[in-house]
Amino acid sequence: MTIEFAEITAEGRELRLEYRWIARERAGAPLVVFLHEGLGSIAAWRDYPLALCEAGGFRGLVYSRPGYGRSTPRKREERWTLDYLHRQATEILPALLRAAGAGSERPWLFGHSDGGTIALLYAALRPEALAGAVVVAPHYFVEEKALVGIARAKTAYETTDFHDRLAVYHVDPDSAFYGWCDAWLSPEFRNWNIEAELGCIRCPLLAIQGHEDEYATMQQIDGIKAQAPQTELVKIPNCRHSPHRDQPAILTQATVDFIRRQDRRAAAPATAR
Prior knowledge:
By secondary structure, the protein is α/β, with parallel strands linked by helices. The protein has a single domain, classed as Rossmann fold. It is about 40% helix and about 20% strand. An 8-stranded mixed β-sheet has the order 1-2-4-3-5-6-7-8, with helices on both faces. β7, α8 and β8 form a beta-alpha-beta unit. α1 packs across α10, α2 packs across α3 and α4 runs antiparallel to α6. The radius of gyration is 18 Å and the shape is globular.
């Protein structure tokens, strides 16, 4: 599977994004677009997108957001503002889909952590554009547990080999780490909240979280369901913030079952539904 690059215009500038298709030749199969976490990239997903697409017979589209992987790095002086996740949903993702040749499709979004939040915002702000979304360890408000975890990660990045380990996945690991870390640890971010947007989500939604998540409590996905009642929840035992690493089989089965069920429902005659 070849890495390709898209030249897009977003956020008032020219950006270069790396992306990769999985099983593009599966004409008519559901398209799943993968949205990575706050320190993620195409490489950081490892082989999980391929494994999920093989299990479900899906097509896949994976990309690295600006500041990550081999996409355009963040400028040294650039600080991501309070609305950086909104801008990813309203500018970057639509531009990437158009550039990759998927702009006319109604894909499924599969988002992890920050990527899950971007999926929620995209679903809320573009309600007719999606078949549905699977959000894994998403966040819609800031918990103290998250801030403690991120502060701990910052200490590790600056005092251990964490920097070198991130360099495996990013050409500029400082771009990825400090873009995410500085945004979340800024004083104004403590009041960040997208609860109002959640009520606008109309598409099928599956929200998944591990019981041992080190960055969040179950209030995150329970709160999503309270605002978007069609949401189905999966709570995974013995699982931390990354179910695709800790419990990949459970995550894959839940996702494949959900997408297939919703696709069957969408294809059924209106009277049957």
